[in-house]
Amino acid sequence: MKTTFNSFYFLLSKKMEKHGVNLMRIALAIVYIWFGALKIFGLSPAGDLVEKTVFWFRPEIFIPVLGICEVLIGLGLLIKRLIPITIFFLLMHMSATLFPFFILKSSCFDGFPYEPTLVGQYIIKNIVLVSGALVISGKYNEAYYLERSLKKK
What digits encode the pLDDT tens for the residues 7-25? Predict the structure, then answer.
């Protein structure tokens, strides 16, 4: 049984070594495009949170513009030559998503820091998105783009 499990696991592991980063890139792109589109069309459950956090901008303008930016980040993740600049904007966006922790602490925690509300959990999950972006940037590094440009010559 153990040998069968290990054989299956190592086969899967070999495939993930080859395809895992691209799957992560596509998954992040889907999340960004989907969540961005929801903001563009006024359907995002995060709309109220954004409105309360960035209260100095008119939400009917800011939220759709934010959605467009998110869709562009998602599309940038799908275009390999745009990944370096896209990762930069993704990380900037993710750092901005931490603002509610400072501006709306009572909305984020029932008991700080160990009891996050649903809003707090929504923000904390961004750690996974940031980690995924860092994994992607590890593959699509200077050596990757140098090798790619040498193949074109």
Answer: 888 888 888 888 999 999 9
Give the bridge partners for 109, in sequence order.
116
Cβ atoms of 119 and 105 closer than 8 Å: no
pTM, 2 dp: 0.87
Query: Which 8-state DSSP code applies to residue 117?
Result: -
pLDDT in tens, 62-81: 999 999 999 999 999 999 99
Nearest to 93 by CA among 146, 10, 141, 36: 36
Closest CA to 53 of 91, 105, 129: 105
CB contact at 8 A, 121 and 108: no
Neighbour-count burial of 64, counting CB atoms closer than 10 A to its CB (0-12 exposed, 13-18 middle, 19+ buried): middle
Q: How many CB atoms lie within 10 A of CB 125?
A: 10
